[in-house]
């Protein structure tokens, strides 16, 4: 019975949030585009950081194996 009580309000909250999300996106498409650009830039930066750490690890492994 406790599970049913927890599921009810969560569903109502989710339904209440969705229309406001859609309104916000429709109101300011330029801001949405800027957010997407920022998100893509962050993903690229993260990917580059991962690649550079892989290279650094490989160099460290080579140095230690040479010793």
In words, what does this structure look like?
The protein has about 70 residues and is mostly helical. The protein has one domain. The chain is built from 2 helices and no strands. The chain is rod-shaped, with a radius of gyration of 23 Å. About 0% of the residues are buried. The model has no long low-confidence stretch (mean pLDDT about 75).
Q: Pick out the low-confidence regions.
A: none
Percentage of residues in strands: under 5%
Number of strands: 0
Topology order in helix (H) and strand (E) letters: HH
Number of domains: 1
Biased composition (Basic and acidic residues): 10-43
Region (Disordered): 1-43
Keywords:
mainly alpha; 67 residues; rod-shaped
Would you spell out the secondary-structure blueprint of this structure?
Blueprint: H1 2-27, H2 29-66
Brief rundown of the structure:
The protein has 67 residues and is mostly helical.
């Amino acid at each position: 019975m406790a599970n049913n009580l927890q599921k009810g309000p969560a569903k109502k909250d989710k339904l209440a949030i969705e229309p406001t999300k859609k309104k916000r996106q429709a109101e300011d498409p330029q801001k949405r585009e800027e957010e997407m650009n920022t998100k893509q830039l962050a993903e690229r930066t993260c990917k580059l950081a991962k690649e550079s750490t892989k290279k650094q690890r490989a160099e460290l492994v080579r140095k230690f194996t040479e010793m």
